[in-house]
UniProtKB/TrEMBL annotation:
It is a multi-pass membrane protein. Residues 484-503 are annotated as: Disordered. This is MFS transporter. Residues 17-484 form the Major facilitator superfamily (MFS) profile domain. It is found in: Cell membrane. The keyword Membrane applies. It comes from the Bacteria. PROSITE patterns: MFS. InterPro entries: MFS (IPR011701), MFS_dom (IPR020846), MFS_trans_sf (IPR036259). Keywords: Membrane, Transmembrane, Transmembrane helix. The keyword Transmembrane helix applies. The chain crosses the membrane at residues 54-71, 83-104, 110-130, 142-165, 171-191, 203-222, 228-249, 269-289, 309-328, 335-354, 366-389, 410-430, 450-476.
Length: 503
């Protein structure tokens, strides 16, 4: 039987454990945001465009999302350190293969392999911290993990831009490989842990879940190209829903489920898993599409747009440690999470002040508000969610939490892009022109009119994002409320600062 978290932490080297996990958690999101900057260079060098080029991103996102839950359960079964090391090795191998790819097909396959590795890293990395640290130390560790993920997202485009400009697009993927190889060098100092009972792997459940999520993500990312009402997209989406229903039915019957459904029946755990979904609407969509608006309709250079985006990403680096510190000092986690989601709603609505030619001073307050909201939730949410789960299911819980995060990103970003094109299309004469405008290309017509169409579409979308974020705030805040006692209270143990305080 594995040691308790406290005993494990005493025997391990916590500083090295934390450094290894943080290095990986910087790199995996960096590979998402940084690879997008390399796409133009990839297209030119490999003579690729359209869907094959876009699958440099889609292949990574699809396998990353689909394998997270499987990786989390495998970590509980086989060992968190072992799955982390295997995931890091696969990610590094995929990144090396991407850097050396002779053609676009090889590059897409390499990115799919890296996505599987990234799933192993993310699912087991959070579980390693949850079992290697406890109390205030765990809160600080997860705050650092949130900062690392934010740093990767924020620094990815800038580093990739420098590398592409100086050394070419292959250097971007080589950097990702180098960082994960460096993390692997310290894996031997990370404590191993696994579930007390080692059941058989739920192979049928894994196949059903990977197929279900793969169908849903594929349908979402191909919807804008194949048409949302086309038989292929409708078939994928309907098939994904049916497979998910079959997966849930199988999990309820099997003795050793891939996902213990009692996890999702815990309303507080499920609420904390909804936080990254709301974050995708309120923050990640801006991170993805706002630079396109700033360059296309705003007329900024790519460098200037990147500098302005620091107003959005900067708070993500600074706020997580502050959030963790506040929780350890007794500030209500429920209050902080509610505030973070409200900042998404308010910031997205406030950003409707943006117009072509708006100065950074005009959009700075809403961007800082949204970035602060993301930083607060990044700092405490994962640690709080895993504090509600016994150590034996930490990998499963981390896998489900990150499936909600990455799956929502892949689907919401694809749908948001399609909505943006549709809204632009209400003010321009053709769908093809609308697609070009939404991608930042304002040639082929009156630039002022096209910029106005893009602005109208962005404003409507921002109001929708604000509404979804506000609804998410209400749902999460309500679900995190402590249930009323119906019997006389019993003496409680000493409070854990990492536990969800809902006062």
């Amino acid at each position: 039987m594995p040691s308790s978290p406290t005993e494990t932490a005493r025997r391990s080297r916590p500083a090295i454990t934390l450094a290894v996990v943080l290095a990986a958690f910087v790199t995996v999101p960096m590979s998402i945001s940084g690879a997008a900057v390399a796409l133009p260079g990839v297209g030119t060098a490999l003579h690729a465009s359209g869907a094959p080029l876009q699958w440099v991103m889609n292949a990574y996102n699809l396998t990353f999302a689909a394998f997270l839950l499987v990786a989390g359960s495998a970590a509980d079964l086989l060992g968190r350190r072992r799955v982390f090391a295997l995931g890091a090795a696969l990610f590094a191998a995929g990144s090396v293969a991407a850097a050396l790819a002779p053609g676009i097909g090889t590059l897409d396959a390499a990115r799919a392999l890296a996505g599987i590795g990234g799933a192993g890293v993310f699912a087991s990395g959070g579980a390693i911290l949850a079992t290697a640290f406890d109390g205030a130390a765990r809160t600080r560790a997860f705050a650092a993990m949130g900062s690392a993920a934010g740093l990767g997202l924020a620094a990815g485009p800038t580093l990739s831009g420098w590398l592409v400009g100086g050394l070419g697009w292959r250097a971007t993927f080589a950097l990702h490989a180098a960082l994960l190889i460096a993390a692997l060098s310290g894996v031997g100092f990370v404590p191993e842990s696994r579930a007390p009972r080692r059941p058989r792997m739920d192979v049928l459940g894994a196949v059903l879940f990977v197929a279900a999520l793969g169908a849903l993500v594929l349908g979402a990312v191909q919807g804008p190209q194949w048409g949302w009402t086309g038989p292929a997209v409708l078939g994928l989406l309907a098939g994904g829903v049916v497979l998910l229903a079959l997966f849930a039915a199988h999990q309820a019957r099997t003795a050793d489920p891939l996902l213990d459904l009692t996890l999702v029946r815990d309303r507080r755990f499920l609420a904390l898993c909804l936080v990254p979904v709301v974050t995708t609407f309120g923050f990640v969509t801006l991170l993805t599409y706002l630079p396109t608006y700033l360059v296309g309709a705003g007329g900024m250079s790519a460098g200037r747009a990147g500098t302005v985006m620091l107003l959005l990403t900067g708070p993500v680096l600074a706020a997580p440690p502050v959030a963790g510190w506040l929780v350890t000092r007794g500030v209500s986690a429920r209050l902080l999470l509610g505030l973070s989601l409200l900042l998404f709603a308010g910031g997205d609505a406030w950003l409707t002040v943006i117009e072509p030619g708006s100065s950074a001073w005009v959009i700075a307050p809403p961007l800082l508000a949204v970035g602060l909201g993301a930083g607060l939730s990044f700092g405490i949410n994962d640690g709080l969610a895993l504090s509600l789960v016994e150590p034996g299911r930490a990998g499963m819980a981390a896998g489900f939490l990150n499936t909600m995060r990455v799956g929502s990103e892949a689907i919401v970003i694809a749908v948001f892009g399609a909505v943006l094109v549709s809204l632009v299309g209400t003010r321009v004469p053709s769908h093809a022109l609308a697609a070009r405008v939404a991608s930042g290309d304002l040639t082929g017509g009156d630039r002022t009119h096209l910029a106005g169409a893009f602005t109208h579409a962005l404003h409507v979308s921002l109001w929708a994002l604000a509404a979804v974020s506000l609804l998410g705030t209400v749902i999460v805040h309500t679900a995190l409320a402590r249930p009323r006692r119906t019997t006389a209270p019993t003496p409680a143990p000493a409070p854990d600062p990492a536990a969800v305080e809902t006062r």
